[in-house]
Automatic annotation (TrEMBL):
Belongs to the bacterial ribosomal protein bL32 family. Keywords: Ribonucleoprotein, Ribosomal protein. It comes from Streptomyces boetiae. This is Large ribosomal subunit protein bL32. InterPro entries: Ribosomal_bL32, Ribosomal_zn-bd. The gene is rpmF.
Amino acid sequence: MAVPKRKMSRSNTRHRRAQWKAATPDLAPVFIDGRRHLVPRALVRAYQRGLLTPED
């Protein structure tokens, strides 16, 4: 495991942590009951099979 040789300053620590941001998921269009819905790409199959229902 990597062990730092020197203490990292608070400014550098916070600057590094600020780069960890959650990315918005890719939304794909899905037609359910004739209406177009935007759903996360990973869940398209579940919506098409009726396992999930979009809230609108």
